[in-house]
Model the fold of this input.
Amino acid sequence: MFEQIKLDYGFDALEPYIDTETMATHYGKHHAAYTANLNKFADQAGKTGESIEKILAEADKTKDIGLRTGLRNNGGGYYNHNLYFMEITPGGSKKPTGDLAKKIDDTFGSFSSLKEELTSLAMGQFGSGWAWLSKAQDGSLFTSKSDNQDNPISLQTGHTPIMCIDVWEHAYYLKYKNLRASYIEALWNVINWDIVGKLYEG
Done:
């Protein structure tokens, strides 16, 4: 049975960048619903016990259209939000260190350039979706964006996400209204790069 990632901080811990009401609604309602629905569809599809990565990678092989859509949308919502809520935490490094920092410099020129690229992808996503920093098996880094609850796994890129920006309106609208750029700028203040670095090294 899939469970939401357990937060080790309160809903108010990311103020003023992400407000308490948004955190409570985003985690307690949206993410909770994706998790419950994923468990329902996984049970119906006979996939209980499979990893979320396997379910996402093979969702398109499910013959029943309703189950296929349910697994892809809710599986993505579950996986994407687990990563999102893992990486936004109080404390921690506000910029990459170690092997990840070196790889970012080698790939993008600088951390600042990476931030600009991811911000551009997040701003350029039409409607709901995500921007991603992912790694390949050889440690190479890639940026991308995706619609709705898709991600580099469900899109079968062969890459593993290590950091994401959620640009669904429920992630920011209560505080920032239609000012997506203001939300993204604020989000950089609460990404814990120690966690992203561990995901890169893992």
